[in-house]
Amino acid sequence: MEQLLALSYGNKLHKCRLHPSERPTVTIGKDWSNHITDFDLDESIEMNWDGELSVWKIKGQTLLLNEVNIIPLKNDKTMRIWITTVEESVIYDTSTRRSIAISKNDYDDITVHGATVDVLLIRESLDDPFKIHVYEGSVFHNYSKVEETAIVEHGDHLYFDGVTIHIGSEDVQMFASKNRVESTLPRLLEADSPYHDEYPDYHRSPRIIYREPVEKMVIAKPSSKPTKPTEHLGRVIAPALVMIVVTVILAIFRTYGLFIYASLAMTLVTVIVSITYYIKNVKQYKIDIAERDKSYREYLARKTKDLYAESEKQRHALHYHYPDAVEIRKMAKEVNSRIYEKTMMHHDFLHYRVGKGDVDTSFEIEFNEEEFSQHKDELIVMGRELRQKYLSQKDVPVVTDLMNGPVGYIGQRSLVLEQLQLLVMQTALFHSYYDVQFITVFPEEEKHKWEWMRWLPHASVRDINVRGFVYHDRSRDQVLNSLYQILKERKLKVDEKSNSNEKIYFSPHYVVLITDEKLMLDHVVMEFFNEDPIDLGVSLVFVQDVMQSLPEQVKTVIDIRDAKKGNIILEQGELVNRYFVPDHFPKGFHLEDVSRALAPLNHLQNLKNSIPESVTFLEMYNVEKVEELNITQRWAKNAAHKSLAVPLGLRGKEDIVNLNLHEKAHGPHGLIAGTTGSGKSEIIQSYILSLAVNFHPYEVAFLLIDYKGGGMANLFRNLPHLLGTITNLDGAQSMRALASIKAELQKRQRLFGENNVNHINQYQKLYKEGIVKEPMPHLFLISDEFAELKSEQPDFMKELVSTARIGRSLGIHLILATQKPSGVVDDQIWSNSKFKLALKVQNTSDSNEILKTPDAAEITLPGRAYLQVGNNEIYELFQSAWSGADYVENKDDQDHLDTTIYTINDLGQYEILSEDLSGLGENKEVSTVPTELEAVIDYIHDYAEDRKIEALARPWLPPLPEKIFLQDLHPVHFKEAWNEAKKPLQATVGLVDQPELQSQTPLTLDISKDGHVAVFSSPGYGKSTFLQTLIMDVARQNSPEHLHVYLVDLGTNGLLPLKGLPHVADTITIDEAEKCLKLVERLTQEMKQRKRMLSEYDVASIEMYEKASGKQIPNIIVAIDNYDAVKEAKFYEEFEMLIMQIVREGASLGIHTLISAGRQSALRIQLYNNIKLQICLYMIDQSEISGIVGRSDLKVEEIAGRAIIKLDSPTLFQSALPTKAEDELEQIQLLQQEASEMDQEWGGRTSEGNSNDARSY
């Protein structure tokens, strides 16, 4: 049962989990060495586990479980300890609650039995955080004691009386012992999280863009006013009224009769009609005026709605895309989907809000009216006023940008710095740290104002792994020097494209905030900052007190006059005078809330499922233990003649990428490219391992070519599939390697012919069916670095590629890997490589060389690679498996803790604080952890051994060793050998290398058959040692009765260590002329004597004489070291005549010469023409070798004892050392010692009556 310790001292709370079986003692004190550290403690305390009683104790006091324990301390202080068993976690829904009461009372929202606290959580609205009020008891908020009230944010936790409460956005989660908590709140099954499932991984969502309306709006002018009646009523009726008056007067004074009445009637009618018509016109006019007014007002009302709607669209767009600081904080903390929504391709990239004010309407409003009118029209005035009303937006975000030249801020410094912080906050929320990064230049005394930015991923210059803060000389040099190099490279790219219309976008875009220009003035980076560097992907922001102090290249000037008034004076170099009310941080706003919320986010530029960032070999196979690979089943199921597909990596979660080098799939040959650190060697290792896991050693085998020697070859030395390694390919070894490979091809062709097949797939099928007995695996020739190999051994590389092309039907696969393919991958190599694997390469040229696309140059992660097959039949990006990870069988049971302690310095870089970096801690036993590669290889090796899988014959044998000992090649014990009958004179002298026969065997010279031996070499390369070896081998095999030796040492005493041998009849040096002449005379007489003996039986050789006569005649060897000196000797003529005679006639008489010389010309032509066995060790003048053994491509390496001899053809061998000595002095001593032992042994035998030895002879 899990136990939790909670300890309060003063106003602090400490918590830790207890594991009595693993850690029975817990120390509490003020030092870091204690398990719990509290710097305010005056004493150290031990808490011990009593295993018998199963309780914890402090100072003899037993600690009660699930209750408060008060521990008395010095100075009348106390410590409170709770040890609780956490058995239950309950979650309650608080999404609709504005208040929550917690106490031991049944009527409260949450009842905690046995609690001593009375707590109220309350908030003004559901969107606000809770505020805690503690009325009774001690409550700890995030490990600090609450003093009456505190703000509790989402993610905070509370602790009291053994109960822990996690505060969520819409729930609370309580941890306590079982049945201790009850509540009337709705219970949830799981906690609500403000974060998505993949947090902290984050990828951009599709962006919603609200465009500000731009379509022109037209306000039509009112129709023309109706024509007002022009005649007045008086003028219309006046004439008629005069006529009436006149008619009446006439009627009074004269009598006209009916005429008068008729005229009066007509006049009256005219008056009435005129009045009626006039009234009608006036009435119609009024109606028309009213109708015009009404209809236009209705039109304006409709237009007002349209303008309002468009205006609201603009307002909404501005408020949506440019929120205030409070909204930004909220979006950051809830990981809103709009985070990082802006990219370089968006129209508003690096646009930001400076405050609120009036802005011009985004759409044009057209109202056509006459420039001059004599008459005022109220409706036209109304149309004009409507247009004027919507020409600007009131109280909306005022926006500017960093993409149209350097920006300058002037005004009160504290207010300006606040504006820059708002700029940073907005930019960081909406722009990814891959797209925008900040470099901030400020005086050191203002560092505290920018500390909040250190959490922002945008504040680190990722290319140089340093924080972009510049505030003293050290940070300036670190940051700006690196920035200068980056801008220089960008400038070169811009200049290269200057003649084209292609726009270059640089990522990331650097925003440089310069609040202290003094740190910049004398720096070389000002070469770029003295003009607008926007084309290099840099935006500059300057801060000065007044406009006159700003640099001339500033195009936008923003004046923050006071807290309530700001003015954009210039924008893009033009005077605009846009006034606004600057934004400010609300009181109590913590800038770190935003930076800390963004800090954990791992922005995935592609979908998470697409490609993992890393995958180990065993993770790719979805296993933890090597035994789970189930090799038995894999080897039984997979058949190489059907498919060679094996996992190589992942293109997505559980989406495996297979590489299949079957001839009809991705194979048979391929290229791999990757620069240093790209994971090139790792992908090769994982591929080899994957093949070994899936195929039996009789189906797949490897021949590794490691030009620089041994690195990869050593990793796979225990793999049963490994048939050999080719390392250190200098001139001598390259031809040997080719010969071995060609020999393997010839062997395969022979087996094909014997079984009437012409392809490896047919042969392997026959083997699977048991028809043929000898297995033939697919042979993978893998070169880890062929660029240098091709450069230094072009002929070898050409032959290798040609051999692989010929061998495709024979099951030969060639995989060539290089760091830099440019200039190395020629047309022949590329056309013969069906698949290409490209990891990170150095530049686009390298990528184009292998893939014919620049994509591989853009890779950033180790192990990330493109697989291309054929003409883009397959072209995909994936993450290759990594086999170098530590192998831990049960990862869940292991504690993988990095105990190294780092401090993050002022540049954002890690500095190690730990003094002990071994990672061993206090462990007394040091255990080594194998890698997955080692574990899998060991498992396959043990599996093969357990099942007694016989190793295949190796086509490539290791290079000849530099030292070989005679006793290892030809172990002979002279005491036993001397008891045997006389035998032919044969000497094992070294190990011969015949790669064309795939063999290395001891080289035995048949002296009895071939007669004489001459060995040549430059001084110091082993010709004297060769004579020692030959003489010692025949001396061990033949008793002094059967072998006599004459030593003629004309050099530097190379043969003198052998003079103690009982076989040696005499030893002569160059100064002993008289003694040499006696030798000439003696051997001349011996030859005459032996000729007479042969003539008695009419035989031609000593062997025939011995058979005919039954007698045994000893063989005689005349060993001459350094024959070059003969011409300088006084006995030259006589001695050379003797040697000439011996090489002509001596072999049949049982007399043989061994000659060493520095060059062939030291011997007369007649002499060396009669010596059949001629051996050449290393010669400084290599042309001498062809004269001795014939023309050959073989090179004798500059190694002592390395030699060449002509057998059927010139063949290399390593001559053996006569004794197992570490150095020359020890060799002399061992030779003398063995000679003395032989002499003593033979002396004992001669005392028994046998005196037919060399000396008595």
Automatic annotation (TrEMBL):
Q: Where does the chain bind ATP?
A: 674-681, 1017-1024
Q: Which GO terms describe its molecular function?
A: ATP binding; DNA binding
Instruction: Show the ranges annotated as biased composition (Polar residues).
Output: 1247-1257
Q: Which GO terms of the cellular component aspect does the record hold?
A: plasma membrane
CDD domains of this UniProt entry?
TrwB_TraG_TraD_VirD4 (cd01127)
Record's protein name: Cell divisionFtsK/SpoIIIE
Q: Where is this region: Disordered?
A: 1236-1257
Claim: Nucleotide-binding is one of the keywords in the record = yes
Record domain FtsK: where: 654-848, 1000-1186
Choose any GO biological process term that the UniProt entry carries and state it: cell division
Q: How does it sit in the membrane?
A: Multi-pass membrane protein
Transmembrane segments in this chain: where?
233-253, 259-279
Superkingdom, natural source: Bacteria
Keywords, A to Z?
ATP-binding, Cell cycle, Cell division, Cell membrane, Membrane, Nucleotide-binding, Repeat, Transmembrane, Transmembrane helix
Subcellular compartments: Cell membrane
- What species is this protein from? Bacillus cytotoxicus
Primary location: membrane
